[in-house]
């Protein structure tokens, strides 16, 4: 059942994300008067389609992409430019121009995409990636504001019978002659909420943890709320070696990967964790962190792909931050669905996984190379820049940018993307990313 749920979540999430991405292109294109002849989700053989108005809507067999066919994507060859040359690339360019021209029906020349102004072209091409960014942000809002983020409270969840002397023995059972933990000796009970420590009011777990760490071997007064009543206790934190934690909450390790420890006061209880609604600002920050992190990964994509392939065919470990294919995302979803965690936690992880997928679609499509949306944006900006310079200098208005000349680049990029995708799929089959 976990396998089925994981696969369904990934497939449905990908299909919806792709479908809305293409809607982001189609809506502004239609609004600007461009004739959209096809709206398709997927590639390969058509499974279902229906024509409504002048547009055919449908689904294809392979849900790994989609497209909106906008009439007249490539303008005719500029005056004085040879239409066909003898080389392969020249034939590719000429074929692209011919196919684009054939789509334009008589009397609808003005509805061709290449007739749009540069700003309108930018809006149309950015509409798809922007839609993925909106989806990711909405999912972040659901998690951060709707469901809430986990936060450690000052309420006691469980009380340890003893305290481990070092971080490496923290999970071991108590020795027969082990002294009771300070929490047990003080009479702390699960459900107690600590409201005061050493005479200072306690408002957060971070504050309380800092006070405990700095009070080793000191006997201090402790006030807890138990069953609606305040109870005065006395506690003496004991000194033990505990791992150093950075400001961002990540454990600190040395060059050999071993935990860095320091003496600190401990009392031997585990706090409860509750979800609380965060503000919209938290969702914005989380989305931005996803975007910036994904952008950094794409900049180093060749290195990341190499590391994933190396891990698949050698003993090198594959980190949880490794770049993945759709197959890898699916396997992570299966792991999440089958994990022994509360249902709500698994739902949150699935939502965050889909948010990360949409952020990846947003960032990756901004790469300024055809056939990606960013390549069309760059051509539109180039066209707009030429026209601005001509207007300032009083020169005739230049025609549309000859985007068809970039088709060889698009074909090379397509081959590269297929190759990279194949390598990552292979790596995800042989040595998938594991959550634990």
Automatic annotation (TrEMBL):
Membrane topology: Multi-pass membrane protein
Molecular function via GO: metalloendopeptidase activity
Family matches, as InterPro entries: PDZ_6, PDZ_sf, Pept_M50_Zn, Peptidase_M50
GO CC terms of this entry: membrane
Species of origin: Cellulosimicrobium arenosum
Subcellular location(s) of the protein: Membrane
Entry's family note: Belongs to the peptidase M50B family.
Record protein name field: Site-2 protease family protein
SUPFAM superfamilies, per database record: PDZ domain-like
One BP term from GO: proteolysis
Transmembrane spans: 130-149, 347-367, 409-430
Domain Peptidase M50 span(s) in chain numbering: 11-387
Domain (PDZ): residue spans on this chain: 181-226
Keyword Oxidoreductase: no
Obligatory cofactor(s): Zn(2+)
């Amino acid at each position: 059942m976990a396998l089925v749920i994981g696969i369904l979540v990934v497939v449905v999430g990908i299909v919806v994300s792709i479908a809305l991405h293409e809607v982001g292109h189609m809506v502004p294109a239609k609004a600007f008067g461009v004739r959209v002849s096809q709206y398709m989700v997927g590639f390969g053989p058509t499974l279902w389609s229906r024509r409504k108005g002048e547009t055919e809507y449908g689904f294809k067999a392979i849900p790994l992409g989609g497209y909106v066919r906008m009439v007249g994507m490539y303008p005719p060859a500029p005056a004085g430019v040879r239409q066909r040359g003898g080389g392969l690339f020249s034939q590719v360019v000429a074929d692209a121009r011919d196919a684009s021209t054939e789509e334009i029906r008589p009397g609808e020349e003005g509805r061709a995409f290449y007739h749009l102004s540069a700003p309108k072209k930018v809006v149309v091409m950015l509409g798809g990636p922007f839609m993925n960014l909106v989806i990711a942000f909405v999912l972040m809002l659901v998690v951060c504001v709707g469901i809430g983020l986990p936060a450690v409270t000052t309420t006691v969840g469980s009380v340890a019978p003893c305290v481990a002397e070092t971080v490496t023995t923290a999970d071991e059972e108590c020795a027969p002659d082990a002294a009771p933990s300070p929490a047990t000796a003080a009479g702390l009970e699960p459900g107690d909420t600590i409201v005061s420590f050493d005479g200072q009011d306690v408002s957060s777990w971070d504050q309380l943890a800092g006070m405990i760490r700095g009070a080793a071997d000191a006997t201090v007064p402790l006030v807890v709320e138990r069953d609606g009543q305040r109870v005065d206790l006395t506690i003496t934190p004991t000194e033990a070696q505990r791992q150093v934690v950075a400001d961002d909450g990540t454990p600190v390790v040395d060059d050999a990967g071993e935990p860095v420890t320091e003496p600190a006061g401990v009392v031997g209880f585990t706090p409860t964790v509750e979800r609380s609604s965060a503000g919209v600002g938290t969702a914005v920050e989380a989305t931005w962190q996803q975007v910036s992190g994904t952008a950094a990964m794409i900049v180093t994509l060749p290195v990341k792909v190499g590391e994933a392939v190396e891990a698949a065919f050698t003993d090198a470990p594959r980190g949880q931050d490794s770049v993945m294919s759709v197959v890898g995302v699916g396997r992570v979803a299966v792991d999440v669905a089958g994990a022994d965690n509360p249902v709500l936690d698994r739902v949150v992880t699935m939502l965050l996984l889909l948010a990360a997928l949409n952020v990846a679609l947003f960032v990756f499509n901004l790469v300024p190379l055809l056939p990606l949306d960013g390549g069309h944006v760059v051509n539109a900006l180039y066209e707009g820049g030429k026209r601005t310079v001509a207007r300032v200098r009083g020169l005739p208005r230049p025609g549309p940018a000859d985007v068809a000349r970039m088709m060889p680049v698009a074909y090379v990029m397509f081959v590269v993307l297929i190759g990279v995708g194949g390598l990552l799929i292979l790596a995800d089959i042989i040595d998938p990313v594991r959550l634990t």
